[in-house]
Design goal:
By secondary structure, the chain is of the alpha+beta class. Helix content is 31%, strand content 37%. It has a 6-stranded antiparallel β-sheet. A hairpin with a 2-residue loop joins strand 2 (25-30) and strand 3. The protein is globular, with a radius of gyration of 15 Å.
């Protein structure tokens, strides 16, 4: 789930790099262009991963840094994955983006794990267009 080549497949072309140790930085980039960065807050493989989430933006306005947590719980032959993204600015761009983004990312991960194929990369772009028109 955290390997750069693997994340690029299910995260619609976003490549994440880090060594995933507590205190380390991580960065998301798509086609070499930075998008999100932060620090690893908790790393307890294979149970939990948590990191800060800070959009890389130009300009003076910045939303506060939020937090993403992945909890994995085995249940027999399956694993329950819970993703929590909290400490978000109400009405902020990050909240709007992740509200539609996380379901797509998790659906793509699920598809990749179950079938060996991620969702098409243009699906995320189409969803963004539809969200902008709404």
């Amino acid at each position: 789930m955290t390997d750069s080549d693997f994340t690029e497949r299910y995260w619609f072309g976003n490549r994440v790099t880090s060594d995933w140790t507590v205190g380390s930085t991580y960065r998301f980039a798509k086609e070499g262009k930075p998008g999100v960065e932060g620090k690893v807050l908790v790393s307890d493989p294979p149970k939990k991963l948590s990191y800060s989430w800070d959009l890389v933006k130009e300009g003076t306005y910045r939303e506060r840094t939020s937090r993403v947590t992945f909890d994995l719980e085995p249940h027999g032959d399956v694993v329950k994955l819970t993703v929590t993204h909290d400490d978000l600015d109400e009405g902020g761009k990050t909240l709007r983006d992740v509200s539609g983004g996380w379901p797509l990312v998790m659906a793509s991960l699920k598809s990749l794990l179950e079938t060996g194929r991620e969702l098409p990369h243009d699906l995320a772009a189409q969803a963004r267009k539809e969200q902008a028109c709404a």
